[in-house]
Structure formats: structure tokens, C-alpha cells
What we know:
The protein has one domain (about 45-260). About 85% of the residues lie in helices and about 0% in strands. The protein has helices at about 1-35, 45-55, 60-80, 90-130, 130-135, 140-180, 185-195, 200-225, 230-260. Helix 1 (about 1-35) crosses helix 6, helix 4 runs antiparallel to helix 6 and helix 8 runs antiparallel to helix 9 (about 230-260). The radius of gyration is 22 Å and the shape is globular. It is found in: Membrane. It comes from Persicimonas caeni.
Amino acid sequence: MLAKLKAGVEAIGNAAIGFVEELGQVVIMLVEAIVWAFRPPYRLRIWFQALETIGVGSLPIVLLTGMFAGLVLAYQSHYAFSLFNAESLVGGTVAVSLVRELGPVLAGLMVAGRTGSSMTTELGTMRVTEQIDAMAVMAVNPIQYLVTPRLFASIIMLPVLTMLSNLVGILAAYFLTVHVLGVDPGIFVAEIRDFVEPADLLKSGIKAAAFGMVIALVGCYKGFYASGGAKGVGEATTSSVVVSSVSILCIDYVLTVLMWD
């Protein structure tokens, strides 16, 4: 029994040490990426490629997710409020739910599944085929070339994707609520103005930027330090999506408490 207890404690301790080590390496990568962003050479073509891949490439799935999130919220809210003859609150409820929570979270999860996994796979393949080592030999800093553009592109594009997702979700909710369920359009819009403040949009953008930073950091870190050939790259990709998704949900709770307390 003592041997099993000792083995369990050692396993927990090793897991805790491994987590702290990985967290430290992620922070170091973040600092290096920020520092290298302000040092030449400035490869603008790579930056614009990263913006296009993360922003334009993720736009269809993010907008589709936002549309159906707005439709579901509108339908369920209308059903709940109709029990109390308060259907006029549907517009405000849908808008505040999308802007504060579902918009940035769903956009972050979709980008983590699409772009975060792509980052890990690409960098992991470069690592196991020794392309990253070849870059270092040719005096090209791998962090500046591979991580920095993806990091800043994610931070910039996630707020944009979130705002577009919020807009599409609210428009979809408007269509369903007004043209199908029969709520007065003036009341729908008025409730949105009462419920959603300009500060909510700013806070939603801050949330999305934080999610973008996490997605890029986790995706690049897992790929940058992948090992074990094709199997290792696959495991790193799976781990990247899982860690990014869980981190988004955890950070969402912390930011919600801090910004709307």
C-alpha cells in the first residue's frame, strides 16, 4: 500500500513539474516572439500570409457558427420568455449573450480547431524533418520567422472574427424573432440598445485577443517542440486542440469575473 501511495505521489509530482516546465517554456516563447517582432528583418509577406490564413480562412466557419448560435439563442429565449409574456426581452438577451460570452468563445474554439491544429501540424512537420534546425543553421531565427507572425495575426484577427460573428448572430436572431416568431422589430432593436453597452464590445474584443494569443502560443509551442515522427506530430496536434479549448474556457471565466464583476 505504501509503495502504491509513493508511486501515486511521485506521478502527481512529476505531472506538476512537467506542467510548470511547459508553462515556463511557453512564457519564454511569448517573450521571444514579442521581442523579435520589433527587430529586423521585417518579413511583411509572411505577416500578411498569416493574417489571411487565420482571418480569411476561418471566416466561413466562424460566421456559420455565429449564425446558428444566434438562431438557437433566439428560439430558446423566445420560448422561455413567452411563458411570462416577456418576448420583448429576446433581442437584448441574445445580443448580450453573444457579445459577452458566446461570440468570443465560439470563435476561439472554431479557430483553435481549424487554425491552431494547422499551426501545430505545420511546425511539427518542420521540426521532425529538421527544417527548423536548418533555418537556425542559416542564421534565420525560427521564432521570428514561424511564431511571431502567427502570434500577432491571431491577436489581431480574433477580435475581428468575433465582431463579425456577433453581427451575423444578432442578424440571424432578428430574422427569426421578427419575421418568424412575430416580435415587434422596434422593440427588438431597442432592447439591444438597453442591454449592450459600448464597453461590452471593447471587453469582447479583449477576450477574443486573449483567446487568439493562447491559440497561437499553444499551437506553435506544441508544434515547435514536437518529436517522434508522424505519430508525435499527430499527438502534438491533438494535444494542441485540447489544451487550447480548455484554456479558452478557463480564461473566459477569469476575464468575465474581472471585467463584469
